[in-house]
Structure formats: structure tokens, C-alpha cells
From TrEMBL:
Pfam families: SET. It comes from the Eukaryota. This is SET domain-containing protein. GO terms for cellular component: nucleus. Coiled coil: none annotated. Signal peptide: none annotated. PANTHER family: HISTONE-LYSINE N-METHYLTRANSFERASE SMYD, POTENTIAL PROTEIN LYSINE METHYLTRANSFERASE SET6.
Length: 271
């Protein structure tokens, strides 16, 4: 723990501790169910439980802009009642631990930890720029609940993170992240039981540039927080290097089943 703290720096450490303590506190209070429904926040727009379209998504993000502004004012020292009320209200709502941690990781990927809590963080362009080059999905939220979780997690980060990181807590950046994450993330499975346990998803932007093939020439495996790739067979000069998006399942699937799964998950027609 001490070595990680030294490597991460004080601002990053403070950010993770703030989020983890908030999640733990809400869980102990019986409010941390993880659904992140945000029913206590009356400024969140109600959306029917269908996949939101582009206009609905933009309207939803716009609907929390005033709340976000009030929270920032409170974090910057304002004692006005509307500002303090916005901050208090969002901290009373239930977090979604997984999505909150995901957005925090994305935020920290865009900044360098400062050497002290008062030194501003600076942008790290490489990883974020690679992410933005990925093909976006204009409607990345599967349901209105998923969208609401994203909105609530955004407000939670504004309320929780060190003030030096707040300029990097951006609604437009989080929407861009969701649009790229939708069809470019890697499934994370357990390593010690043949991958029987599914743990979630993660985005490794550079690795996401691999295209899919049902007869891949590149193998992959996760090692801790990183992925390793290697050529699994000989390739011709100029041949594209491809991985399987199906994680080996393609061996036991027929053509129709492979095409159906690829279209449902990654939204492309496999030739």
C-alpha cells in the first residue's frame, strides 16, 4: 500500500480514498445498494426505460448542468444555500461503485498526479487521445437507468474529488468515454479458474484498434492489469493482425451464432 501511495502521488491517493470511503459509508448506512438510481436528486430528468436516443442523451446531460455548477460553487467555498443544498443532496444519493470507480479511472488517466494537494494537475494526452480515435457509439447507454447512473456518478465525482482534479471532471469527456467504451471494451475474467468468473469490462485504448476475425492470427491474454498479444500463426506480408472478440467461443459457434453475437455486442456485420 505504501509503495502504491508513493507511486500514485498524494492527489491520486486522496481521490481514491475519497471515493472508497464514500462508497463504504453509504453501504454501512444501508444506502449503498449500487443502483445509483439518484431518486433523491430532483433535477435528474426522468427518462422511460428504453435505450435513449442521441437527443435524449444530450438532454439528460444538459439537465444536470445547473446542479453541477452549484456543486462546483459549493466546492469552491460558496455558502449560498442553493449551492450548499446541491452538494448535500448529491452526497445523500446512492453511488454505483463500479461506474463511479470507472469514471474516476478515466479522470485520472487524463491528468498527472500533482506533487502536492495544492499543485494543479496537468493533462496526459497520449492515452486519452488514443481513446478518442476509437469509433464512437452515438447511443452508448443500454437503458435510461444506465444513463442515470452515469449522470449521478458525474455529480458524485464533482462532490468528492480533490479540488485540483475538478477541472478534469467533465460531462463532455464522460459522454465521449461512454461512446467509445460501448463497443471497444475488453471483458475481464478471472485468471485462476480458466476464466469461469466474469469480473467486468475495461478499456485499453491502443489494444482496441485490433479488428476482429473468426480466424484470428493474434492471441491475447490478461496479465494483471495489462494485456499481452502475440502472433498465433504465421502471417503474410501486409496481412492485417486481428484478434477474436469472442474470446475463443468462436470455435464452438456456428456462423449464424457468431454473426448474431458480434452484431448484438459490437454492432457490426461479420462477413
Amino acid at each position: 500500500m505504501e509503495s502504491w501511495t508513493e507511486e500514485a502521488g498524494p492527489v491520486v491517493t486522496e481521490a481514491w480514498m475519497a471515493v472508497e470511503e464514500f462508497i463504504k459509508r453509504k453501504s454501512m448506512q444501508g444506502n449503498g445498494s449500487g443502483n445509483g438510481s439518484g431518486n433523491d436528486d430532483h433535477e435528474l430528468q426522468h427518462i422511460n426505460q428504453v435505450r435513449p436516443n442521441e437527443e435524449e442523451i444530450q438532454q439528460a446531460w444538459n439537465s444536470v448542468s445547473s446542479t453541477a455548477h452549484f456543486i462546483l460553487e459549493a466546492r469552491n467555498g460558496s455558502t449560498r444555500k442553493p449551492h450548499r443544498r446541491a452538494l448535500t443532496s448529491v452526497l445523500a444519493t446512492s453511488p454505483n461503485p463500479d461506474y463511479l470507480s470507472f469514471l474516476l479511472s478515466a479522470t485520472l488517466s487524463r491528468v498527472k498526479a500533482a506533487t502536492s494537494s495544492t499543485e494543479p494537475a496537468t493533462a496526459t494526452a497520449t492515452e486519452w487521445d488514443a481513446l478518442l480515435q476509437l469509433v464512437p457509439d452515438p447511443t452508448p447507454y443500454a437503458t435510461s437507468s444506465c444513463l442515470q447512473i452515469a449522470l449521478q456518478s458525474y455529480l458524485h465525482l464533482l462532490a468528492l474529488l480533490p479540488t485540483t482534479l475538478l477541472p478534469s471532471v467533465s460531462a463532455s469527456a464522460f459522454l465521449a468515454l461512454a461512446q467509445r467504451d460501448s463497443h471497444n471494451s475488453f471483458g475481464i475474467r478471472s485468471l485462476d479458474d480458466g476464466g469461469d468468473e466474469f469480473l467486468g469490462y475495461g478499456v485499453w485504448p491502443v489494444a482496441s484498434f485490433f479488428n476482429h476475425s473468426c480466424s484470428p492470427n493474434v492471441g491475447k491474454k490478461r496479465v494483471g492489469r495489462e494485456w499481452e498479444f502475440w502472433m498465433s500463426r504465421g502471417v503474410e506480408e501486409g496481412e492485417e493482425l486481428c484478434i477474436s472478440y469472442l474470446g475463443g467461443d468462436e470455435v464452438g459457434l456456428g456462423v449464424a451464432e457468431r454473426r448474431e453475437r458480434l452484431f448484438e455486442t459490437w454492432a457490426f456485420e461479420c462477413e
